[in-house]
Fold:
Amino acid sequence: MAVPFTVEFSGGLEILFGGERVMKLSLASPRDDDNLTIADLVKHLCDEKMTDSRRDMFVIEGYNVRPGILVLINDADWELEGEADFRAVG
Amino acid sequence: MPSLPLQSLCELCSAQKPSLRRPKTGQKICQQCFFHVFETEIHNTITAASLFHPGERVAIGASGGKDSTVLAHVMKTLNERYSYGVDFVLLSIDEGIRGYRDDSLETVKRNQQQYSLPLKIVSYKDLYDGWSMDNIVAQIGSKNNCTYCGVFRRQALDRGAQMLGINHVLTGHNADDMAETVLMNILRGDTARLDRCTEIITQSAESPIKRSKPLKFAYEKEIVLYAHYKKLDYFSTECTYSPEAFRGTARTLIKNLETVRSSAIIDIIHSGETFALQRRGGKNQAKKLVAGVCERCGYISSNKLCKACVLLDGLNAGRAAVQISLEKPGDQDDGAALVRKQLEHLSF
Structure:
């Protein structure tokens, strides 16, 4: 089942996404189960939405969000919630 | 909408949902407690160093970026809460960089309204024979321009403060910046700077104005989140000319260290603070800077001419050469090429 997201970029990160500050999208688990995680969203953003070629400004060593970039899930620090493993529910 | 599952409560008030994990302590705390501890820690830094005295007039170096915006906001808040009795003024430098400083200065002008603080803007163009950073880069290229900008900015802040009759300027340097600087000074072997770079107040023979860094122990993550949760108005574009490759590398290294050792930043600052550097032999030690003034502009300098005037001489010599070459008749078409050729032969 696809989960709707509103993704906001700020602090300069929007430059990597064509200057778009707010992006609405809907995403289903690539594994055909209900375990969609933030890691899947990051991969999707990186592969499908990023317009700038400097991938390493956003992710390093695969799809790990670069240290120093702060991620908020529902306006709360993602470090509270297991970071990329956080499971998104529709 | 994705939603957070039920989670533990704020570790300080046990009443609200936590909003962040503090990088310094690992504590999970809510927004209200975060505002309180963040501000209180800065207040403690200020009182521990006796940074201000009542009736003092102090300038806040304001770029419109996150650090200086948070600094201005917190200084105003604490000044009212704890009755420091300090008279704050915003001081901005206009380097003359289109698409960067013009926009960020608009932010500072809004901050001036939001915080009802007086604002003084001094520009490179006015201070340095009409040379803005855009003009400088057009002449020297984008390779060494940070050297010019650094020397010019330092002096511009001092001069701006002097125009205001102020001898204390606050800058928004944070803990992450300071750890990077310590590391960079070690890697460069710059022991003279290593000695002083962690001091909260710096006062040197090269500058008549005292500088201090109230955000010295504030983590960048908390500064960004403070600005975000308080909905502060700040400008987040990087300088269009700044590659600052060395600092960037130091930053990445520290960020990586932090993932395996969460106290890395504060540990590096602590190391910087406690290094006791032994000066070798008497000769170097004896070479103490003689405080004099620049023959041309009167700014404090240990040499005949201050650094800014030396750089200006180079720029002006280059500009003269350019003008001569352009005045030659008949080569209007290759004007640009000629200028470039002329510039290649210049050395400063």
